[in-house]
Description:
The structure holds two protein chains of two kinds. Chain A is an alpha+beta fold. In chain A, the strands form four sheets. In chain A, strands 16, 17, 18, 19, 20, 21 and 22 form a seven-stranded mixed β-sheet that branches. In chain A, a hairpin with a 4-residue loop joins β11 (270-274) and β12. In chain A, α1 (15-27) crosses α5 (113-155) and α15 (436-455) crosses α19. By secondary structure, chain B is an alpha/beta fold. Chain B has a single domain, classed as STAS domain (Transcription Regulator spoIIAA, 2-Layer Sandwich), CATH 3.30.750. Chain B contains three helices and five strands, in the order ββαβαβαβ. Chain B has helices at residues 25-37, 56-71, 83-91, and strands at 2-8, 11-20, 43-54, 75-79, 99-100. A five-stranded mixed β-sheet of chain B has the order 1-2-3-4-5. Chain B is globular, with a radius of gyration of 12 Å. The model of chain B has no long low-confidence stretch (mean pLDDT 91). Classes of the chains: A alpha+beta, B alpha/beta.
Amino acid sequence: xxxxxxxxxxxxDTPTNIKQMEVVVRRLGHEPVVATDGLQAIxxxxxxxxxxxxxxxxxxxxxxxxxVRRIREIDAGSKWTPIVFVSALDGxxxxxxxxxxxxxxxxxKPASLSMLRARINGYSRLLRLQRELEIRxxxxxxxxxxxxxxxxxxxxxxxxxxxIQQHFxxxxxxxxxxxxxxxxxxxxxxxxxxxxxxxxxxxxxxxALPLTQAFYSMTAKGFPLSSIAEELNRKLKxxxxxxxxxxxxxxxxxxxxxxxxxxxxxxxxxxxxxQEGMVAMRxxxxxxxxxxxxxxxxxxxxxxxxxxxxxxxxxCSDGLIEAENHxxxxxxxxGVMRLLGQGTERRLRFDNLRxxxxxxxxxxxxxxxxxxxxxxxxxxxRRKHRVASPGIVEHKGEVQAWRMELSYGAGELRYIDVVPAxxxxxxxxxxxxxxxxxxxxxxxxxxxxxxxxxxxxLDSSTKDWIGGFDIYMQQRAERLSALRSxxxxxxxxxxxxxxxxxxxxxxxxxxxxxxxxxxLADSERDEGLQRPQWRGIPLVKSLCSELVYSGSGNKVxxxxxxxxxxxxxxxxxxxxxxxxxxxxxxxxxxxxLFEDPC
Amino acid sequence: MQISSxxxxxxxxxxxxxxxxxxxxxxFRSAYEKLLETDGVREVEIDFGGVDYLDSSALGMxxxxxxxxxxxxxxxxxxxxxxTVKQVLDIANFGKLFAIKG
Lengths: 598, 102
């Protein structure tokens, strides 16, 4: 940095002293300003804002010591200006008094020219460093503010305003290195992520940022948590230095199946909290944080639990558990539960927790970023399925026929997430685009029936036992990884059927099939609908105009009405069929036929 | 944080005590770099017996050490884990990355 001339205040009541010092100051390229007593020194100081001060002690009206005390009071906390006493008083106690009054230095008169020059040059260097520091501080403040603004926009998402969840985030610095993501996934699933990057502030937030886009795009396509975790890990491993990582909890709340699925790598336990204020389930960290392990070492294994009573999933970063009160005591999990209390009003309980954390901190800033998210899991008997209305899209003309066939062998089935991949294709097609949510439900039900029951031979009644869901999922994982033969074929065809544009979805597998007549008859009855394994078929039936099983039960065709065709004169716009709960598709409750499909 | 180190045979021991956090970066690195350069050292054991606090940047330093050690064919183990130090390492599942000794 270029040295700029300094403005130097010389306060002395002896004209020759002033003259002599002015000469030195000018010769060094600086600008002198002058005062001849203490009061004047204060006035000139306030008016001229000098960079440095030479102050005599014995002066009329007000002495130098008192003038310096006053100057330090004026500047208190806002800036520092070096002040050097120049005095004939040479006792130790005089020097100490001067320094204690706020002086930085003390020169005993008569001051030699070389002594004055050395002091001016020394403080000039110090002031330059101070200026550099000040500029750095301003730059970093500006960067932090810009960072906070951009980060706010980049991480904002509709899911974070969804009433099913509540969250708070208390940053340790200008902004938080903790990242919260929330989104509705296809089906009645709500997915969230709470990520905590090493450190805090801008570097930490930057570290966690690459996760958002991948999380949202994969969640929207219906990828399972394990695949999302793998992808996030791969991404971070590729871009982060070895000493940086991101602790993360990913969770999916499936309202229809009443399950909560969690992947926790490096965060405090995720909790399922009942309205009675009890912890019904803890998902402790089972994996190292994201960004450490290679693809081969990484595990996306999740833990799933089924719930029959209403409650909430609570995720938090270690900042919440380790939040310290005035005597350094951590809040801990017990403290969180105590603050949360009990009751059915979840907003109230959440507010209690939020306020309780503030109370625990007692006005001191948090030492680490604190974040917390709660997701409600409502329980409703015989829950009706909600399907987002696709809305009316006006388009005219012929239905453009479209067909796609896919065939997956055992090798691919072991590792490909077939349903999201297929949905990726389907949603490229204009006429299907607005039906994404419904199509996901139909395709995922039919596909998982073909895979789980057809090829893997799983017994769906396992899910009925207490703890059976875990056993079922474990068996599924084991059998899938051991799958060596078998095939699932999928066909999709858009065509015109009478006054309707329809999509036919055919799924067949090479498994032994099942006694579909009995199952379907059962599923018509109420008690059938209560059992998890039959929930899928009536759901598909309700969304489609036809559901047709054939062969030995290993082939199924679902017909889904996309829209009504406009009248021949083309004046009436094509009317989209709005998917509605249970039995919306023309034929009342839907039809199940027994014939050869496809 | 205080660091003591000794080498016997192929094994080096780094004994840590105090707070192991962001501020320990330089001294921890210079301590382990010296050990990794020492001929014949095949294993570095980090003894946490005297550590009463560990933060996430300390975990980062351990990962850095692990990477440096592995690139020269050496192993890193952790010992003397108890209390909050053990808790922090457990939550991060560092048992899957390092050998843990009693």
